[in-house]
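[step 3/7] fold_predict: job queued, chain A
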Amino acid sequence: KLSPNQYPWKKPVASSKFTSWFFPLDNKAGWIPFALSKGLRLHKKEKLDLIFTSSPPPSLHVTGYLLSLFTGLPWIADFRDPWIGYKLEKFPTPFHSFIKNKTQRMIIKKAKRVIAANPSVKEELERQSFNAKEILLVEQGYDEEDFRGDQTDNEEIFTIGYLGTFSPDCDPTPFFSALGEMIDQGMIHRERVRFVHAGISAGMDLDRMLEKYKLKDLVQQKGYLPHRESLDLMKKVSLLLLVTANHPSIFPAKVFEYLRLNKPILGIMPEESQISKFIIRMKGGKVLSLEDKDGIKKSLLSYFEDFNRKELTLNSDQDEVKHFERKSITARLSSLFDE
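[step 4/7] structure written:
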């Protein structure tokens, strides 16, 4: 049995470099002819009205384009990640980069409508497309059904929670470094703080990091949990941590669930990023840059003192948060389909 920090994808495998040479779009591109054949048979049998493709993987959009071309049906392309630019991607050759860029621009041009799942994706697609077509925003949101039941905080111990994967793209080092120093300096009492992680660590040795900052006994690593169970765990924390890589295009979808939990968010991320601007606009908490250790410590201390005074609250606009409930988002998507 593997521990949460020993999953096999921690280290890159040679096959990813191999497939990037022979599949310029993505490593799922070999599925395109089979998906196209199935789609054409379905259309012949069911007389479809609309084609909707959602990526990743981005090769799905190529399938959607070809289906639209052969059937004459309107086609909507939904991007949950930008195809290019989400990470500092390295291409095997300039030709591979050219193929990807050309294909993405073709998709944006040919689709009847193009949807982005968050402001970062929208901004990236608009920057890359060189096209006047409007990129529509339909967010991923949260499911209200996931929040049924009690929401009882732990009133005795200041508990910080994180939902999801720690990785080089979501590196908790600035946070744990700041927390470790605060405990060493007596700013926060060791027995009065806990950290709960519902998720795994991939691409980094979290246990070694916790040992380095003398935090191993304070951190509860729950590993993978059913989604509802992980949210139930977050209902009991005092403060929610959100960390992203030093790249402005990253926009974690869990931010919508964080906002629905109605607890303060400590965001450690690029201050110019869309996710940072979104948290500030929604009055969801405080945002600090990855390099601002003093700011992280100051914010943590402020939250800890508010907790001790039983004054730790959040003044976010929950009416605005309801805008991101999935029934509302689905109604907007349905309206777009009707259009």
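[step 5/7] annotate
Residues 268 and 288 are 5 Å apart (CA to CA).
Strands lie at 51-55, 75-79, 113-116, 135-137, 158-163, 193-198, 219-221, 239-243, 265-268, 285-288.
exit 0
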